[in-house]
Amino acid sequence: MSCTHDHNCEDHECSSDWSLYKHIDLSKVSALNESVSGSVKSVFKAWEQRLHSSGEHLESNEGDPELLVFVPFTSDVKIKSISIVGGPDGRSPSKLRVFINREGIDFSDAESMQAVQEWELAENLQGVLEYQTRYSRFQSVGNMTLHFPESFGGDTTQIHYIGFKGEATQLKRDVVATIVYEIRPNPSDHKTKSETGGGFSQVE
């Protein structure tokens, strides 16, 4: 389901609604079938910059419009809606399929797996459409894989912006891992010099 903005962005702080880009682990974002390696990272930016590409965008290889985009987050997030700004002349993606908390998905996996949700997209060149998620399914999202199977007839698929509306938890994913590690006692932390030839005994 898609919807348009029901307010004037000059009166409403849209950038705060679409601020989850700050929680994307950009260094680990990747894409399959991108024509320019690493170009996928340019599409994740502030809401107010969604129509400003400066020539940078994500585009599939010529003659093959399929794209697969992996997006990891630095903390678990809850996603309410997604916005996609595509390219002109039939090069916008026409469909989106999303997988959650599954790493290492390739095109073969994407074609055979059941997506968490699918959308038929519109050509959203002005960035005014957003696609609502089935919110109960988009809780505790650590990473997402976005599958764009086809364009609107263009030889390539071109994407200028991908945005997520929602909220992030306060606990970073690396912090969670540290806490789990710390609550497991490490015997080596309690050894004294007797076990290394120093004459002291292990603390009981």
UniProtKB/TrEMBL annotation:
InterPro entries membership: Galactose-bd-like_sf (IPR008979), PITH1-like (IPR045099), PITH_dom (IPR010400), PITH_dom_sf (IPR037047)
GO cellular component, one term: cytoplasm
Pfam families: PITH (PF06201)
PROSITE patterns per UniProt: PITH
Segments crossing the lipid bilayer: none
Gene3D superfamilies to which the protein is assigned, alphabetical: PITH domain
Domain PITH span(s) in chain numbering: 9-184
Family affiliation: Belongs to the PITHD1 family.
UniProt protein name: PITH domain-containing protein
Lineage: Eukaryota, Viridiplantae, Streptophyta, Embryophyta, Tracheophyta
